[in-house]
């Protein structure tokens, strides 16, 4: 169904127009009792947990291929059927949009032949970034669970919350920290190993240069 109550304008609203629009929004929300309240905390279900375990397997497989270890699964909430899953593929495909959850969403939408994933959940090992949070809202996912928080890029609570924004027409308050320790440890270990390898690489390059200079 296409939403008809959209407001498209050719120019950005000016200062006064913007202020007027904000005041109108606030008034309407106050009168209608729709003042944005924080969503009630939700609990992960056993199905969410099982899906997060699968997402962790995908994240580990990504790490083995030199990708940042993030995994994601889109599943049917009524049956637990996996409709799409992926790890990160940014390095392999040289694709800035190669994030696990974006790829899992695309696969699931193709699989069911509809971009609206109303009856689906998403489990992802890392808090979604702005791009993926945008894709989640556009896919109308009904449920989102994530593992580790991403203080520098997360848009499901860290830098902002696109998943639960009161001015967007679809909201999906995320359930955070599901197997959070496992997900965070996987990422920390990956980056620690990467730093160690880089350090060793620099050391080796230095000693090779020294050896050549002495020849
Ligand atoms: Zn992302």
**Gross morphology:** globular
Number of strands: 4
CATH superfamily: Cytidine Deaminase, domain 2
Pattern of helices and strands: HHEEHHEHEH
- Main sheet: which strands, in order across? 2-1-3-4
Molecules bound to protein: zinc ion
* CATH architecture call: 3-Layer(aba) Sandwich
Provide the CATH top-level class. Alpha Beta
Q: Tell me the strand percentage band.
A: 5-15%
Count of DSSP-assigned helices: 6
The structural class is alpha+beta
Number of domains: 1
At the fold tier of CATH, the topology name is Cytidine Deaminase, domain 2
Poorly predicted sequence stretches spanning 5 or more consecutive residues: none
**Largest sheet entry:** 4 strands, mixed
pLDDT average, as an integer? 90
Q: Taking Cα atoms only, what radius of gyration do you get, to the nearest Å?
A: 22 Å
What is the percent of helical residues? 40-55%
> Ends: how far apart?
75 Å
Q: What is this structure's SSE topology?
A:
Blueprint lengths: L14 H17 L14 H19 L6 E6 L5 E6 L2 H4 L6 H13 L7 E7 L3 H9 L4 E6 L31 H35 L1
Parallel strand pairs: 3-4
Antiparallel strand pairs: 1-2, 1-3
Helix pairs in contact: 2-6
Bound molecules: zinc ion (ZN).
What does this structure look like?
By secondary structure, this protein is of the alpha+beta class. It has one domain (43-202): Cytidine Deaminase, domain 2 (3-Layer(aba) Sandwich). It has 6 helices and 4 strands, in the order H-H-E-E-H-H-E-H-E-H. The protein has helices at 15-31, 46-64, 90-93, 100-112, 130-138, 180-214; strands at residues 71-76, 82-87, 120-126, 143-148. It has a 4-stranded mixed beta sheet with strand order 2-1-3-4. Helix 2 (46-64) runs parallel beside helix 6 (180-214). The termini are far apart. The mean pLDDT is 90. The structure holds zinc ion (ZN). Zinc ion (ZN) binds at residues 99, 128-129, 131-132.
């Amino acid at each position: 169904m296409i939403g008809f109550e959209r407001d498209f304008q050719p120019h950005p609203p000016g200062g006064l127009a913007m202020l007027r629009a904000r005041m109108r929004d606030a008034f309407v929300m106050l009168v209608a009792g729709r003042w944005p309240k924080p969503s009630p905390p939700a609990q992960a279900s056993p199905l969410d947990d099982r899906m997060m375990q699968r997402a962790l397997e995908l994240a580990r497989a990504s790490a083995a291929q030199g990708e940042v270890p993030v995994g994601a699964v889109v599943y049917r909430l009524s049956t637990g059927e996996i409709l799409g899953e992926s790890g990160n593929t940014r390095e392999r495909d040289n694709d800035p949009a190669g994030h696990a959850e974006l790829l899992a969403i695309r696969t699931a939408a193709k699989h069911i032949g509809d971009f609206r994933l109303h009856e689906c959940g998403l489990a992802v090992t890392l808090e979604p970034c702005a791009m993926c949070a945008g894709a989640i809202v556009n896919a109308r996912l009904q449920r989102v669970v994530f593992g580790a928080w991403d203080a520098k890029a997360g848009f499901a609570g860290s830098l902002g919350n696109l998943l639960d924004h009161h001015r967007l027409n679809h909201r999906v308050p995320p359930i955070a920290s599901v197997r959070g320790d496992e997900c965070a440890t996987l990422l920390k270990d990956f980056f620690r190993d990467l730093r160690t390898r880089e350090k060793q690489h620099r050391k080796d390059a230095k000693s090779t240069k020294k050896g050549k200079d002495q020849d």
